[in-house]
Amino acid sequence: MKLSASLSLTPKGVDEALNRVHKVNVRLRSVLILLGTPQTVEQVISKRQALFSTDEILEIILELVDGGFVSAEGEPIPRPVVSASGEIIQIADDIIVSEAKFLLVNFCVDSFGTKSQTFIDQIGACKTVKNIQLCLKNIYAVTESQIPDRLPDLMKVITEINKTA
Q1: Residues 135, 126 contacting (CB under 8 angstroms)
Q2: Is residue 149 part of a domain?
Q3: What predicted TM-score, i.e. pTM, was given to this entire model?
Q4: Residues of the chain whose pLDDT is less than 50?
């Protein structure tokens, strides 16, 4: 997710912030209340860094987006990665994050050339397996829509990543 992405509450998010209808936990609620006025991801991180690490804040934001409480303008909402055969693409929980980052950066540079910088920045910010999985979802979606002939290569990269576990 880009740090410049604008975040705002959806009607469901407003309902939760005002009435606690969905009873989200305190971690999520603290960010929901902060988003009473639209802000960028970077602003949310700077205001919540005393409470949470950057990775935790990003996970909270993504959880709120996935739950339909927050919308991220200019950013695709992460969806499960599904291959052409219909299987869900997952990476193992115990992969080596640095190796996964290296392999994904190489794939992006080879596939997207000079347009790969956005992906490289996102991958560089990844600290956990969950962050890598979210980057992979975005990379898969763009690869599928823009250069579908590179999907077999991406699948090989995912296999290599899982071998690091």
Answers
A1: yes
A2: yes
A3: 0.51
A4: 75-87
